[in-house]
Amino acid sequence: MVGEEGAFVLGWDEVLTEEELSVTLKVLSMSEEEFKEYKEQDGWEDDSEEEENSALSNEALSRLKSSSKQLLCDSVLLTLQSYGSDLKAEQDLLNNKEAYEKLSRREQQALHVRYGQKRILHQVLELLR
């Protein structure tokens, strides 16, 4: 369901791997009986209503069912916990010119990437709450 990478890609305005995320949330929210039926039918290939509702813009994330919101929220929190520092620590380092300049160019770039990733994850959390 998640693909080769095993991760979902979230952007500033939308989920970039919306189909994978949508299917994963649906499957994880199913009862055992619903899942058996899903497997027997090889998914929802003919369900046009699902396709219409699969667009996961940031606005659409806030309208997810509560069970899907909770699954996604838990996933985002686990991802944030996997980082060695929090968003504020990254922001403080970016704002501390002296400490920032002591970092190598590669460390500075990694800091910017981590900071951007964490900002997106925090934005998603806000949309889900």
Automatic annotation (TrEMBL):
GO molecular function, one term: methyltransferase activity
Disordered, as annotated region: 38-57
Every Rubisco LSMT substrate-binding domain range: 4-121
Top-level taxon of the source organism: Eukaryota
Any single Gene Ontology cellular-component annotation: nucleus
Biased segments, Acidic residues type: 43-53
UniProt keyword terms in alphabetical order: Methyltransferase, Nucleus, S-adenosyl-L-methionine, Transferase
Record-linked Pfam families: Rubis-subs-bind
InterPro entries named in the record: Rubisco_LSMT_subst-bd, Rubisco_LSMT_subst-bd_sf
Compartment(s): Nucleus
BP term (GO), one: methylation
The protein's name in its UniProt record: N-lysine methyltransferase SETD6
